Amino acid sequence: MTDDVLAADGRVIGTRAIATRRRLLDATAKLLTEQGILDLRVVDITRDIGSSPATFYQYFNDVDEAILELAKEATEDEKPLVRLLQPGWNKKTGLEQAHHFVDAYMVFWDTHHAVLRARNLKAEEGNRHFRAVRTEANLLIMNALAAMVTEGVNAKRLPDSLDPFTTAAAVVAMCERLLAFQPEMAKRGSDKNAIRNTLATLLYGALTGH
Amino acid sequence: MTDDVLAADGRVIGTRAIATRRRLLDATAKLLTEQGILDLRVVDITRDIGSSPATFYQYFNDVDEAILELAKEATEDEKPLVRLLQPGWNKKTGLEQAHHFVDAYMVFWDTHHAVLRARNLKAEEGNRHFRAVRTEANLLIMNALAAMVTEGVNAKRLPDSLDPFTTAAAVVAMCERLLAFQPEMAKRGSDKNAIRNTLATLLYGALTGH
DNA sequence: GACCTATCTGACTGACCGTCAGATTTTCGT
DNA sequence: ACGAAAATCTGACGGTCAGTCAGATAGGTC
């Protein structure tokens, strides 16, 4: 029951409608990537699937609602990353584990960057739905990271002036933003591999204190 | 000559027009802060200064042009921050110097966050003018940071797997993004002071290796 | 006060948003 | 296989905003 798909007015919809709704979501994601949120128009989304604007409003009250749904889907793809962040990174394998996480995070980011960017903008502009989704996604990662920092602080490898939760936030911030800079940095000689190595090294250092 | 103020069509304008243009820029900044870029309308900007849309287009070809100008003004406010980032942070005063920079950066961010957010969005969505402005602003800080990292690497305090320029980018990324998270983190117990301390500690560590 | 130039704006066209009534397609009972 | 009922889709419309232009207004000069 709970996972029935609903139309904009809340009624449960059938298989044809689910397919249409799906095509609308895919088109929204595609145009968000190609044109950016500022030029995203409902007309274009529906034109893309060979339909009319009225169809869009059958399933979403506005474009935000569609983007919010995409953001929730992105969160699902982020969940597996948490498994790569367990306390216990040591001198032998820690840096390699950091690389694993960075690699997985880069794939995640590549897949969803347009939606994540839109989500973050909306969240920062104060939209509470997007805030909730972003906070939920970030907490997944941050709680795992904070546990690692706490371990490092307890073991006296990290200074206790580091607040674990804030440090976790800083690490997430760094990952997110550095990947957003990527296209510009590529032009200045920092290739993908340099970013990967540097990010892994910084993570390893900030999280473990080794 | 070069610093004459121009209208949208390129002609030099007089004092009355300069004042009007200024009021338009101020109103744009205000509404960008209050409503966000997605709900920014030319009608609202001109209504705010008691004028009509046509007036706006006398001075700017579109809203982007006004935001771009604001972004350039923000860059001017960022320049003084570079003075706070000189190689030579040592064990005695380094952490304090990191705090100085973080404090100044936080003020800068508070003042311009709406414009910077808009600038970053536009840059990330591929607008080359905004990319150029952002790159220029970031390079100011990054070059200074990269010099500090290079010093740390040369002194063997930092691992040479850290690419100086990428590390600098990561540090900027961390500062920028963490402040954007601030409102949400406040709700979870990370107050402004925790952010300040953590950021300074991480900066000090990443830049000097102490 | 008459003229010239700089500045401003009313009014218009075209595009998109969001709605609704009615058309079309699918489902289902017989 | 057929017709009625339900689900889904869309043409067409009123409202708002973007961007343009011709003409109105204000300011300066002689």
Structure report:
The structure is a homodimer of 210-residue chains. Chain A is mainly α and 210 residues long. Chain A has two domains: 15-61, Arc Repressor Mutant, subunit A (Orthogonal Bundle), CATH 1.10.10.60; 67-208, Tetracycline Repressor, domain 2 (Orthogonal Bundle). In chain A, 71% of the residues lie in helices and 0% in strands. Chain A contains eight helices and no strands. In chain A, helix 4 packs antiparallel against helix 5 (94-124), helix 5 packs across helix 7 (164-186) and helix 7 (164-186) packs antiparallel against helix 8 (192-208). The longest helix of chain A is centred in the middle third of the chain and has 31 residues, at 94-124. The termini of chain A are far apart. The model of chain A has no long low-confidence stretch (mean pLDDT 92). At the A-B interface, helix 5, helix 6, helix 7 and helix 8 of A face helix 5, helix 6, helix 7 and helix 8 of B. Chain B binds a DNA duplex (30 and 30 nucleotides) through residues 7, 11, 13-14, 16-17, 20, 41-43, 51-58, 61-63.
